[in-house]
Amino acid sequence: MTNMDSDSDDEIPTLVKPEANAEVGEQDDEVPTLIASSDEKPTSKVPITIVTGYLGAGKTTLLNYILTEQHGKKIAVILNEFGDSIDIEKQLTVSDQNSTEAKPVDFVPLANGCICCSVKDVGVAAIENLIEYGGTFDYILLETTGLADPGNIAPLFWLDDGLGSSIFLDGIVTLVDAKNVLRSLDEGEGDEPEKLEERRHEDGHGHQGPLLTTAHLQISHADVILINKTDLVLKEELQKVVDRIQSINRLAKIKTTTKSQVPQLEGLILDLHAYDEVTDADLKFASKGHSHLDPTISTSTIIFPPLSPAQVDNFDLFLRTILWEDDLPDNKTHDIFEIHRLKGRIPVKDGKTLLVQGVRNIYDMKEARTSDGANSADEAKLVLIGRGVDQPAFRESLIATLEAKR
Ligand SMILES: Nc1nc2c(ncn2[C@@H]2O[C@H](COP(=O)(O)OP(=O)(O)OP(=O)(O)O)[C@@H](O)[C@H]2O)c(=O)[nH]1
Ligand SMILES: [Zn+2]
């Protein structure tokens, strides 16, 4: 669906209609509008999966595939021009002011119970309307533009304010094009040159750091990465791609696909729970080691002893300082860094386990339900994904902060 991504503002959005179900949409130019009565408010939050990926990686192919599969869910698919953070903020404000006079959104019902909605300019407001008027579906899939930075979009659905009251972020799925991804990572091919220049930063010694491309941002924020178009590469080439992607993001599940055909939807696209649960298994692979295959972004794991209850506040201070101030507490000297994603499981000696989640400068810390609790003898693990996170100073600063009397 490359025509969705053109820049012309007056272009009429195209609706996705899987060929197999072509008869369902009936008249092509008459789009049905679903309007539910106002008392049909959804009672629980609807999960949303963000589908991101570089230009032409296979996002629309994936959504079409899902819309034709039998999965027993009513899925609302939104094709959107989500991209620029500034636009999104504008849209949020507009939708807040107009929330009482929101207009219905147009949907196309599909054979397997799914509905499809194509939104070009309304963005967040459209999703609110979808919830308000639709109410009859149990999942939302949102395709972003190829140049979108998921780090700007994810917080909109994760936080309690804004949209978080009716929707919760289930996960971010990133598609990469096996044939082109290495070139995108190395050269920023397809990226806007000004954006690349903006994202370059100095390494703290006055040297320009390596290129941070859109492909990096989409991989570093992903919970699931589908390496698509495997038919276009040789086995050895594919292995190189897998290795490179793993070196950037060791938390994400990685699967290889052709024509975006995922082996199963559950746990790969739907119901990831990537922003509420942090299981031991989630962190296991990440903490097994790391490599420096990518000069720009890497995954790093800090392992430390369980906290005493009195150290919890100090741990929180450490998180606030690294995420909000891009700095390490206790004046620890360090190179410049930038954290994109963070996950942790922190046992406390009173028997609780703290679960930590972060995207950019937003984080959430809560207690694990006792049923999934690791016992307090386990080590604590904090996994960081980003630029410059692979510095010994992180662990040193954390230990010093935990031990400090405040
Ligand atoms: N050879 C090959 N082609 C594929 C595969 N998956 C998708 N394609 C083709 O690649 C092209 C782009 O796929 P889309 O699904 O439109 O990609 P997209 O990510 O939605 O693209 P944009 O919205 O333009 O960013 C289409 O012509 C697809 O048919 C694959 O596994 N192998
Ligand atoms: Zn597309």
Automatic annotation (TrEMBL):
Pfam families: cobW, CobW_C
Record's keyword terms, sorted: Chaperone, GTP-binding, Hydrolase, Nucleotide-binding, Zinc
UniProt cross-references to Gene3D superfamilies, sorted A to Z: CobW-like, C-terminal domain, P-loop containing nucleotide triphosphate hydrolases
Origin: domain of life: Eukaryota
CDD domains: CobW-like
Domain CobW C-terminal: 338-400
Region named Disordered: 1-39, 186-210
Entry GO terms, CC: cytoplasm
UniProt key word RNA-binding: no
Annotated Acidic residues bias: 1-12
InterPro entries listed in its UniProt record: CobW-likC_sf (IPR036627), CobW-like_C (IPR011629), CobW/HypB/UreG_nucleotide-bd (IPR003495), P-loop_NTPase (IPR027417), Zinc-reg_GTPase_activator (IPR051316)
Record's catalysed reaction(s): GTP + H2O = GDP + phosphate + H(+)
SUPFAM superfamilies recorded: Hypothetical protein YjiA, C-terminal domain, P-loop containing nucleoside triphosphate hydrolases
Residue stretches of biased makeup (Basic and acidic residues): 196-206
Domain CobW/HypB/UreG nucleotide-binding: residue ranges: 47-254
GO molecular function: GTP binding; hydrolase activity
Record keyword Cytoplasm present: no
Family classification: Belongs to the SIMIBI class G3E GTPase family. ZNG1 subfamily.
The name this protein goes by in its record: COBW domain-containing protein 1
